[in-house]
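Entry:
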Amino acid sequence: MKIIVCATILFFISGCSQNRVDDLFSLAQSRQSDLRLGVYITSHSVELLSTQAGRREALSLLRCNGITHIYLEVYRSGLVVPVPLLREVRDFFQKNSIEVTGGIATVPGGDFGVRQSGRLDWFNWQNEKTQRDLKKVMRDVAPIFDTFIVDDFLCTADTS
């Protein structure tokens, strides 16, 4: 049985000793059919991976925790991650034996999409602007990822 555990990138604030990194990561790679750990990296956290230092630190923390899979979020709350940064981050982690999947949090923000008229912060899915904005993001990032996960904000209470 395969289990994929997703957590937020905030685990990166914890450290680990260097001598444990290779052993746990190698063990995690060899036992992926038993248990596979992954983290969901929000779009705001993807921006922290724009530097080599940020990517190296993240890789170190992934490896020392036995994490072999990441989900890179491309959009959340009005923040669209630039395509070149997504490619750069994806390529870096893939070259370092980390599986990479795309992800999106479908919540409005800024001038992106149209908020529903209900009390929660969800999209009005019937509004053409919402559809147009999401379509553009998805078309831009589709060539980058073979697999994609939609965060659980794919809902609405709008009655328009």
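Strands lie at 4-5, 36-41, 67-73, 75-76, 79-80, 99-104, 148-150.
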